[in-house]
Amino acid sequence: MNPYQSLPPRSFWRTAVAEPDMLDIGDLWTPKFAVDPDDPVLTAGSCFARHIGPALLEYGMNWREVELPPPGLTAAERLARHYGQFSFRTGNIYTAATLRQWLAWALGDETAPEEFWCENGRFFDPYRPAVEPDGYPSAEEASAARRVTLAAIRTAIGEAGCLVFTLGLTEAWRDRRTGTVYPVCPGTVRGTFDADRHAFGNFTFPEVYADLSAAVALARAANPRLNVLLTVSPVPLTATATGEHALTATTYSKSVLRAVAGQLAREHDHVDYFPSYEIVTGFPYRAVFFEPNLRTVTPAGVDFVMRHFFAGLERRPAGLEGRPAGPGAARPTGTSDGGDQLCDDAVLDYYNAG
User: Which domain holds residue 91?
Assistant: First the structure.
């Protein structure tokens, strides 16, 4: 006898991956903790994370959208202002550093810089420049709106049962003066780029690990019963400032994020990892869950990911019920529901001279 003789079929590549039809591959996630349907669930992270909250709500779970839209906005206006996308109006949070930053401002002893970008008489928040597309009439109003969001984070974290956070990038731009991290490069979505002030960085494993550990610790200090479920976005980098090829830069970024998420999940009972990245980008799926740009995940792909998620919560196989009719049904048939429109970093493709 040897240890491999008693392993189940899911432990072997041939029986778990190579032989089954790709849509029948299941048993990919065994949750470490239960998520009660009545427990408030918060979502935050990269643009892929915006699919998770509405899916939870549709499934009958208690997804908590803390900042609700004012009455009278159209569906397009709500979408443009990032209502209904995440639990908070922080906009996309791509890096562990920016998650730690928001939680430190809301729950810790750090204070956000009182700096706002002015364009054509309107003021924009550098740390969520796309959330209010028309800006604010004054810096005071922009600051007041940020305080509303920070208060919402404090309240929601204190009441939540689970925080689902989707890691997206390791690349980021930092303010040399304050040390704060921007969600996107100044001068792209908003603002003006200043080479003397704005510094590029590509976070390493130790740096991401430190920031994510600190973020989890801040949240748990505010709410000791909070569980954290980590995922990694399958959406590749729109562009890289490292000088590397976009493919290898994406591989580095996702590898670091996946490794950090796995490490924290191994170290803490209150941290788990859900494999949305593997479900979309894994070998057996042959990129069928991407739009033709090989970046935007199709609605069928999002549905497939969430079906595995709910199957795991219910401790059942992600079987044939509700699955696409076949591989052809999983392929893109048109545009997705918003696509890159809500991904701040997608604006970088505008600067592609190729």
Answer: 3-110+152-349
Residue 100 belongs to domain with CATH number: 3.40.50.1110
Average pLDDT of the chain, as a whole number: 90
141 lies in some domain: no
Token look-up 């803490």 returns: 268
Assess contact for 190 and 127: CB atoms under 8 A: no
Distance CA 286, CA 332 (A): 13
Domain count across the chain: 1
User: Is 342 inside a domain boundary?
Assistant: yes
Tokens (6 digits) for 142:
């922009």
| Predicted TM-score (pTM) of this structure | 0.89
| Paired tokens of 209 | 């690990």
Categorise residue 82: left if φ over 0, alpha if ψ from -120 to 50, beta otherwise: left
Query: Whole-angstrom Cα distance, residue 258 to residue 49?
Result: 15
Average pLDDT over residues 253-265: 98
Whether the pLDDT of residue 315 is over 80: the answer is no
